[in-house]
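pipeline stage [seq->struct] | target=18 kDa seed maturation protein | organism=Rhynchospora pubera | residues=99
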Amino acid sequence: MQSVKEKTSNAAASAKAGMEKTKASVDEKVEKMKTRDPMEKAAAEERKDERKMAAEAEKQAEKHANAAERGYGTTTGTATGIATGRPHTGGTGGFGSSV
């Protein structure tokens, strides 16, 4: 279960990412209205997409850092992201034998 501090930090990261995505969309619309050149319009859309992806990546990195600070592992554990405390040993994933 997440602590209040972790939930608050995650909410702040989500809000910040949302603001960055909104800024990227607004900037793209302004740039598109300023030009008639289709290449410039495409470039503006490309910049918007890059900024949105960067904001999402930063948000996910902050969430992982918040989870790591609390002690949850991000590379071991189950598909839910909750650490089991056991390292991944490879194996067959439950299919067949691991002989």
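stage status: PASS
auto-comment: The chain is about 65% helix and 0% strand. Helices lie at 4-34, 38-70.
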